[in-house]
Amino acid sequence: MNAPIGQRASPDRTPPAPLRPARLTLRPPAFPPGPVSGAWWPRSDDLRAELPALIAAFDRSWGRVSRVAAHRDAWPQAPCELPVAGHTVRAAWFTSGFDPHAIRLFAYGVGRRDLLVVPPGTGTATAGRLMTAAADPALRLTASALLQDAGGSRPARDR
Fold first, then answer.
1. How sure is the predictor about 78, in pLDDT bands with cuts at 50, 70 and 90?
2. How far apart are CA 80 and CA 82, in angstroms?
């Protein structure tokens, strides 16, 4: 018996690799969002490869993400649409007036979340400090200020 045309197995076709979980921290939901609501530490600067895991995390816990916004210079490629988790996420790119170290996620009917984007090549200890600081409800720093502060000797809370 023959399989329908669309269901034939192909020996050279491999299933897609499973998504690695997004490295993500968020402020507790009981606290109002500050300039950033948490941090995301992508493994590379390839938004097409990195965004699906981030979107999947938000789709499960917050609401279906329909749009993202970022600074154009932060990502080497600037696609207008990204296929993610069974739907398409539209991207808006800014060259001014937008923090180059942040990404903004929008979920229809829910709102928006701004996240610090920890640069992919950041060391584990520094990334951990940045992610903790970005999720701290007591801090009110922008993404760029958090990154700038990471090189300082005093804790961000004391500045």
1. confident
2. 7
pTM of the model: 0.81
Q: Where are the domains of the chain?
A: 34-141
b/e 8-22 (16+ beta carbons within 10 angstroms → b): eeeeeeeeeeeeeeb
Name residue, tokens 């399989």. 3
Q: Model confidence over 86-113: pLDDT tens digits?
A: 899 999 999 999 999 999 999 988 889 9
Q: Are 40 and 23 in contact (CB under 8 A)?
A: yes
Q: Backbone phi, then psi, for 91, in 5-degree steps? A: -120, 140
H or E, element range at 89: strand 87-94
- How far apart CA 46 and CA 152 sit, in angstroms, is 29
Q: Which DSSP letter does residue 61 get?
A: H
Using CA atoms, how far apart are residues 154 and 111, in angstroms rounded to an integer? Answer: 34
Residue in this structure with the two tokens 């970022």, named with its chain if needed: 70
Gyration radius (Cα) of the chain, Å: 18
Burial of 117 (0-12, 13-18, 19+ CB in 10 A): buried
Query: Of 116, 119, 95, 118, nearest to 105 (Cα)?
Result: 116
